[in-house]
Specification:
The chain is α/β, with parallel strands linked by helices. It has 18 helices and 21 strands. The relative contact order is 0.11.
Length: 481
């Protein structure tokens, strides 16, 4: 079960990766989390893939996280009478609510919410930002614009409005249906698109009712501005750089990515870096050097996970893409500079007993001959706090809650194990040392750090730590009761 790296790999499933044989190959190559993209495929497709993942989980004995990515509202222009028109910089162009087919001068934009939020000087982006227009004047049902960057505009192209907060909920009617379907099916994470404010996250969590953790996709400037509040409301974050690069100047995205990753780590919440990480591997068995550097930079920054989208969902080389990510991760984490960077970015967080315990566990592990840190966790908090420390030794996250173990599969450095339900700390010591031996993290000559909360089975009570030998004879000799 052991991955010889700490960063996790998220692989999106799709037409190229729907069979049990292929999904098992992706898992064996290094995928820790599987993403179901609700923008594509039917509920039956996703249900079949979900069932396959759970079969593989049962066969391997390793908890696997499943992430359902909700589509979010899609803002698109209407159709054109001739299919498409070329717009040139300096041209005048109107968007309106008229359902007549578009021409060289206007097209329908069937979203009154956009017109309600626009003002003179606002920018409209069409077709992933390839066409840019500035609003000259607007009303409740129109916007007269000047083209600033020209291009070909055609039927149903997407529209972005980067500099205003739109009066739109992050959840469309389709998303609400998909959310309920995903929760009933038993996914572990929900990725929420079109997040603009913390209230969007709170709405999704209210609908999820604790059945799945909610991860916010940061893909809009409004979300970057409100990130502190969004992070507080979320269980995890995805830095969706593709959409950010459309709505923000592309040169601003790398520093934003770096800042968001650090904030997530400080909050002990998992963060995925996503979009176009190995894009060329959709059609090529080898990545570009720039793509490898991009993946490596996310790992150096301390991201919990890196994600493959079309590379594994629809590409010609899905297994090779996962293998490449695994190889890059191992190489980066073996670099002495990686450890120096990770430790230099560590910030002390000593606001609670749990903070002090996990800090002590990491320091003990790094100054003595400790094979692993065994963190017993009921809610996932203890293991997440240990992961925040980015220790040099493996983290064994042991939980009697299957859902908790699965969700922790997204968190940096965690090797998740489903344990029996415990009532005494001595049972934790015995189970932790056995797990360390059984899964190849230690032999009987080594020691591990065991940490848990007493009383057991109460979330948020991390308060005890013990250095334990992996030889059970020594455990019983030192603690006969």
């Amino acid at each position: 079960m052991r991955r010889h790296r700490n960063v996790k790999i998220v692989a999106t499933l799709g037409p190229a990766s729907s069979t049990k044989e292929m999904i098992r190959q992706l898992f064996d190559a290094g995928a820790d989390v599987f993403r179901l993209n609700m923008s594509h495929g039917s509920h039956d497709d996703h249900r079949a893939r979900h069932a396959i993942i759970r079969e593989i989980e049962a066969e391997t004995g390793r908890p696997i996280a499943i992430l359902a990515d909700l589509q979010g509202p899609k803002l698109r222009v209407g159709p054109f009478a001739d299919g498409a028109h070329d717009l040139t910089a300096g041209d005048k162009f109107r968007f309106d609510l008229d359902d007549a087919k578009g021409d060289a001068n206007r097209v329908q934009l069937p979203h009154p919410e956009i017109f309600a939020a626009l003002e003179a000087g606002s920018e409209l982006l069409v077709n992933d930002g390839k066409i840019r227009l500035t609003v000259d004047s607007c009303g409740k049902d129109f916007a007269d614009c000047t083209v600033t960057v020209g291009g070909t505009i055609s039927d149903r192209k997407g529209v972005n409005v980067p500099d205003v907060v739109l009066p739109l909920a992050a959840l469309s009617d389709k998303d609400r249906g998909d959310l309920e379907f995903a929760c009933e099916m038993g996914v572990d994470w929900l990725a929420l698109s079109f997040v603009q404010r913390a209230a969007d996250v709170e709405e999704a969590k209210a609908l999820a009712k604790g059945r799945a953790a909610v991860l916010s996709k940061i893909e809009k400037p409004a979300a970057v501005r409100a990130f502190d509040e969004i992070l507080h409301a979320s269980d995890g974050i995805m830095v969706a750089r593709g959409d950010l690069g459309v709505e923000l100047p592309v040169h601003s995205v790398p520093p934003i990515q770096k800042r968001l990753v650090r904030q997530c780590r400080a909050a002990a919440k998992p963060v995925i870096v996503a979009t176009q990480m190995l894009e060329s591997m959709i059609e090529s068995p080898m990545p570009t050097r720039a793509e490898v550097s991009d993946v490596a930079n996310a790992i150096y920054e301390g991201a919990d996970a890196v994600m493959l989208s079309a590379e594994s969902a629809a590409g010609d080389y899905p297994v090779e893409a996962v293998t490449t990510m695994d190889s890059v991760a191992r190489s980066v984490e073996a670099d002495a500079n990686y450890r120096a960077i990770i430790e230099a970015s560590r910030k002390a967080k000593l606001h609670s007993v749990a903070d002090a315990i996990v800090t002590a566990a990491r320091e003990i592990a790094e100054t003595t001959d400790i094979a692993a840190i065994c963190a017993f966790t009921q809610s996932g908090t203890t293991a997440s706090l240990v992961a925040r420390e980015r220790p040099r030794v493996p983290i064994l996250a042991l939980s009697s809650e299957v859902g908790v173990a699965r969700r922790l599969s997204l968190t940096w450095g965690t090797h998740c194990i489903i344990s029996p339900r415990l009532t005494r700390f001595k049972e934790a010591v015995v189970n932790g040392t056995r797990a360390a031996r059984d899964f190849g993290f230690a032999d009987e000559t080594r020691q591990v750090v065991v940490m848990a909360g007493v009383p057991f089975n109460v979330p948020g009570t991390t308060n005890i730590l013990r250095i334990a030998p992996c030889d059970e004879r020594l455990i019983y000799a030192s603690d006969p009761e």
